[in-house]
Amino acid sequence: MTAQGFALFDTAIGWCGIAWGERGIVGAQLPEGSEHRTRTRLRRRFPETPETEPSPAMRKVIDDVVELLAGGQPDLSAVELDMTDVPDFHRRVYEIALAIPPGKTLTYGEVAHRLGMPGSAQAVGQALGRNPFAPVVPCHRILAAGGKDGGFSANGGVATKRRMLVIEGALAEEPTLF
Question: Is 151 left (phi over 0), alpha (psi -120 to 50) or beta?
């Protein structure tokens, strides 16, 4: 999959990135701890791609992601994603994830049932762990059984997942212990 350009942008949780091509977004990147590390991660994923000014369509996606990570509820479900190199099972998992609105969650098992494949919760988790479009494809909204966190492959792991869910109102803030 070839990207035409990528851009970094600051959000409430840190510097994110997005890469695009002729068929839409080819990759998105959650914060890596600093602007430099996020840029480095995107350059590794898309080594021949220039950092450039986003088109108006990509600027709209960026603005929506910024709004989402600040607690807004933009609808990202119609964003064009280039899933050319995405395996069919993963694509189906991502389509279900895209339909989960901000502030709501599903479990890995519920996604497996919606796929018509009960018992494939672990495969769902593996597909989400390879999500190249986070947070546009909101894999953070999918939890383990009983509402437990499950895993999260982005920088910061489960703490980042929980922070995003708190921002969206899907989880209450955890009390600060003194």
Answer: beta
